């Protein structure tokens, strides 16, 4: 039964990590939009944008 | 969502004649309606984001054909730091843009994928529910206008970040609530685990050291949960006591704190039960209820945001150097602005140059356009219909008429009694009953067995926690709002459902609510002397001339042509607009005049009537009667409501004749014409004082204060933002039939609320006797509480599953 005194504090540390991780996730806005990210699974695929001639130009133009 | 051959591939609107624009999709040509939609669709394919079309649930917003003006206006704001968003570390900014046209999750994905590749953009988030796009970006690496342009390229319309502080506050509140819920949930899992050990120990034996260790750990986990997640109940209870109206928070805070203190007490003296698991479970379930309530509340638009959106964002200011586009909020008294046809006035002012027709329906309920000449006043938010005019600003921003309406709305809202859903008298009764029973228990045990008196009293307090009771209402309201949404009704205030079941009078606005709010041709009369013309022909000619006008009457002709003979549309040349009178133009070589009797009709004809005359150089050819027609199911809805015994009233800002015409058709006796918002409000207050429970249905800005003051209020599709923000329910489809559906759902909801409340009361009432006699074990309390809470939730979910 003495294992209790090791395992429970260990579990408490894990709990602390879990709470910290959850608060970090909420703060960084991961729970703000629960809908659209589910779609990225079906939407994001290996369809690459075709090479665009003025891609680089675009970048420079937009930068101040 | 797929489109057909005759509708635009991007926005789904019908493709006008003579337009043959296409985009290529997988080598297949898809038709689009305009170059704007074409540009958007091409950009989407070129960026490899074509899958958007496969997965979108709703069609896109019709794109603007020419973005140059909009982009130029945004360019002018590049240097305003106040618009860049909240400052973050390392000079980054957190920009919140309200974006028009976000319809579904596929839109959100499209925006994210497109925007995240732009230089200086760190992350993009789109909230599909509220339509906000949040961009974390670096102002040193990009410009504000480039971000706006990127959104516009995709066919969305970003608004100037005006009222973002409020939305920011709401997001903060959502996040806080989620954190509290999460902490309570994680804490609950831990404490339940230790509690399982303690229950097993109580049944099969456990060493004292182990038991007190488990209890100690439970205490250590419960304490932060109580202090962090439970804080809102204590502060809420304190606030309600200070306000002299003890709410549900009081018994909740009492039960939580007493159960915790009692458990600590028993733990430190080394004997008796501990209830830590019950405490964290209370907090978790109660936080869940609060979270659901908050999410419902946030659906409601804030009045401030809606106000800002009512006025046009941009104004064209005339200066010595020329014209510049500035945000409307920058306008000052004495500025000159140019207002084009179809735009709304950015500020209150006097017309300095030009004559025009103004659509003031939104503000006054008047269905006809009003003529405004040089020197006359125009009101911000109303729409300029026929001629570009120059306006001298006399009041802008907070000083405008519309803003004062907004203040009237806030006043009306604050006067409406806030209802927590639970009858106010119940709470003090509840608290007193609990305290009496607890005291009685203690006294009773003093006579029998003084040693057990204290612990018996404590278990009474634990058993009486109104956990299921506080969960009973929010979950039903959440389920009901879900179901209403399926039917096309957006619920913004949960308690409105309860009030809806008590309604005995219905007040309708006329223009835009009972009627469509746009005129329709109801009769075409051909001059007997010119009978060679057919009705289709004259409508075609009229529509051709009116094609260049933004006036609602022009739309009526356009619609008539679309319905009868789409191919007949001729082209008109040399069209001149005569504000307040009509138009002149040449169609197929013939000179025509169209307009009001005194402008178009030859002398000697009856004047002063409302019809529109079509005249050529010889004589009049046709006379059109236009009327604001009823919505399709207005008649049946009004009949249905009357059948249910509701008193029907009509309050309109429109003229007596227009009101009589509609009221007669609907057989509404109680009718009032020419009502200002203040008069409407007075009538409604009088009705309520007379003991009536009033449902108000409206759409215009002038209805907003009345909507806010009614027991329950609804707005119909196309209503003004400000009216929507005052309404409890927003009907999202064109049908008034939804009103009776809403009442149905409300009745069903009331039934479920009653079941839930009954169950919660039965549960508490049956557990308390156990506690009184000292037979309530902690595991029983924990089990009973979670089961009763789950039952309440399951019961509520029946509302969602049941399809009519």
Structure commentary:
- The complex is a heterodimer of chains A (64) and B (804).
- Chain A is mostly helical and 64 residues long.
- Chain A is 62% helix and 0% strand.
- The longest helix of chain A has 24 residues, at 4-27.
- Chain B is built from 28 helices and 29 strands.
- Chain B is of the alpha+beta class and 804 residues long.
- Among the domains of chain B are: 1-65, no CATH class; 68-161, 2-Layer Sandwich (Alpha-Beta Plaits); 312-399, Distorted Sandwich (Calcium-transporting ATPase, cytoplasmic transduction domain A), CATH 2.70.150.10; 517-630, Calcium-transporting ATPase, cytoplasmic domain N (3-Layer(aba) Sandwich).
- Chain B has a 7-stranded mixed β-sheet with strand order 17-29-28-27-18-25-26, with helices on both faces. In chain B, strands 9-8-10-16-11-14 form a 6-stranded antiparallel β-sheet, with no helix packed on it. A 6-stranded antiparallel β-sheet of chain B has the order 19-24-23-22-21-20.
- Chain B starts with 20 loop residues before the first strand and ends with a helix.
- Mean pLDDT of chain B is 80; it is low at 300-304.
- Chain B is elongated and about 110 Å long.
């Amino acid at each position: 039964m003495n294992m209790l005194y090791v395992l429970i504090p260990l579990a408490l540390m894990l709990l602390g990590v879990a709470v910290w991780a959850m608060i970090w996730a909420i703060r960084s806005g991961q729970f703000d939009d629960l809908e659209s990210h589910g779609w990225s699974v079906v939407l994001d695929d290996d369809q690459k944008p075709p090479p665009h001639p003025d891609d680089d130009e675009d970048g420079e133009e937009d930068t101040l | 969502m797929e489109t057909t051959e005759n509708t635009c591939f991007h926005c789904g609107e019908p493709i006008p004649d003579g337009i043959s624009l296409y985009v290529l999709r997988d080598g297949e040509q898809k038709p689009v309606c305009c170059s704007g939609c074409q540009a958007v669709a091409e950009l989407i394919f070129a960026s490899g984001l074509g899958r958007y079309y496969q997965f979108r649930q709703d069609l896109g917003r019709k794109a603007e054909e020419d973005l140059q003006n909009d982009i130029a206006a945004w360019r002018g704001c590049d240097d305003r730091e106040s618009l860049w968003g909240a400052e973050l570390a390392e000079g980054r900014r957190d920009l919140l843009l309200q974006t028009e046209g976000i319809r579904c999750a596929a839109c959100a994905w499209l925006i994210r994928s497109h925007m995240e590749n732009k230089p200086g953009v760190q992350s993009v988030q789109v909230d599909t529910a509220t339509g906000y796009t949040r961009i974390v970006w670096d102002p040193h690496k990009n410009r504000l206008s480039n971000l706006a342009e990127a959104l516009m390229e995709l066919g969305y319309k970003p608004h100037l970040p005006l009222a973002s502080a409020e939305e920011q506050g709401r997001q903060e509140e959502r996040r806080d609530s989620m954190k509290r819920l999460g902490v309570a949930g994680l804490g609950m899992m831990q404490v339940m685990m230790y509690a399982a050990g303690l229950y097993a120990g109580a049944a099969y034996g456990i060493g004292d050291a182990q038991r007190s260790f488990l209890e100690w750990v439970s205490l250590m986990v419960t304490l932060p949960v109580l202090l962090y997640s439970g804080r809102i109940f204590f502060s809420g209870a304190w606030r309600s006591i200070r306000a002299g109206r003890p709410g549900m928070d009081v018994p909740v805070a009492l039960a939580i704190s007493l159960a915790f203190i009692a458990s600590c007490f028993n733990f430190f003296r080394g004997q008796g039960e501990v209830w830590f698991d019950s405490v964290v479970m209370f907090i978790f379930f109660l936080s869940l209820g609060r979270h659901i309530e908050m999410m419902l509340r946030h659906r409601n638009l804030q009045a401030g945001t809606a106000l800002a959106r009512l006025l046009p964002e941009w104004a064209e200011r005339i200066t010595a150097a020329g014209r510049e586009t500035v945000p409307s909020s920058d306008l000052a008294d004495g500025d000159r602005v140019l207002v084009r046809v179809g735009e709304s006035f950015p500020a209150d002012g006097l017309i300095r140059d030009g004559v025009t027709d103004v659509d003031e329906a939104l503000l006054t309920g008047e269905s006809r356009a009003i003529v405004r000449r040089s020197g006359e006043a125009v009101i911000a938010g109303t729409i300029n219909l026929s001629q570009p005019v120059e306006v001298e600003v006399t009041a802008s921003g907070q000083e405008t008429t519309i803003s004062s309406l907004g203040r009237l709305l806030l006043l009306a809202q604050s006067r409406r009694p806030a209802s927590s859903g639970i009858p106010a008298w119940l709470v003090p009764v509840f608290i007193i009953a609990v305290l009496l029973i607890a005291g009685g228990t203690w006294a009773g045990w003093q006579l029998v067995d003084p040693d057990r008196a204290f612990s018996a009293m404590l278990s009474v307090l634990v058993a009486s926690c109104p956990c299921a009771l506080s969960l009973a209402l929010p979950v039903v309201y959440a389920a009901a709002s879900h179901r209403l949404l399926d039917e096309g009704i957006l619920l913004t205030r949960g308690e409105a459902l309860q009030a809806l079941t008590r309604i005995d009078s219905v007040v309708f606005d006329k223009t835009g609510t009972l009627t469509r709010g746009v005129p329709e041709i109801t009769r075409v009369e051909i001059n007997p002397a010119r009978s060679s013309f057919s009705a289709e022909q004259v409508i075609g000619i009229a529509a051709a001339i009116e094609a260049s006008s933004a006036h609602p009457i022009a739309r009526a002709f356009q619609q008539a042509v679309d319905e009868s003979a789409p191919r007949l549309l001729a082209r008109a040349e040399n069209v001149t607009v005569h504000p307040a009178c009509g138009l002149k133009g040449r169609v197929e070589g013939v000179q025509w005049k169209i307009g009001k009797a005194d402008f178009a009709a030859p002398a000697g004809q009856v004047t002063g009537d409302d019809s529109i005359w079509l005249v050529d150089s010889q004589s009049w050819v046709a006379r059109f009667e236009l009327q604001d027609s009823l919505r399709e199911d207005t008649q049946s809805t009004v009949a249905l409501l009357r059948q249910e015994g509701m008193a029907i009233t009509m309050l309109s800002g429109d003229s007596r004749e227009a009101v009589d015409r509609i009221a007669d058709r609907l057989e509404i006796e109680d009718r009032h014409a020419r009502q200002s918002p203040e008069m409407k409000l007075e009538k409604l207050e009088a009705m309520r004082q007379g003991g009536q429970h009033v449902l108000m249905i409206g759409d215009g800005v002038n209805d907003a204060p009345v909507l806010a003051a009614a027991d329950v209020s609804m707005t119909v599709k196309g209503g003004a933002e400000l009216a929507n923000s005052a309404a409890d329910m927003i009907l999202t489809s064109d049908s008034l039939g939804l009103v009776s559906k809403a009442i149905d759902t409300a009745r069903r909801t009331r039934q479920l609320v009653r079941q839930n409340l009954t169950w919660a009361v039965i549960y508490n009432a049956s557990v308390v006797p156990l506690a009184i006699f000292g037979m309530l074990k902690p595991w029983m309390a924990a089990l009973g509480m979670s089961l009763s809470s789950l039952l309440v939730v399951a019961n509520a979910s029946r509302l969602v599953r049941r399809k009519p």
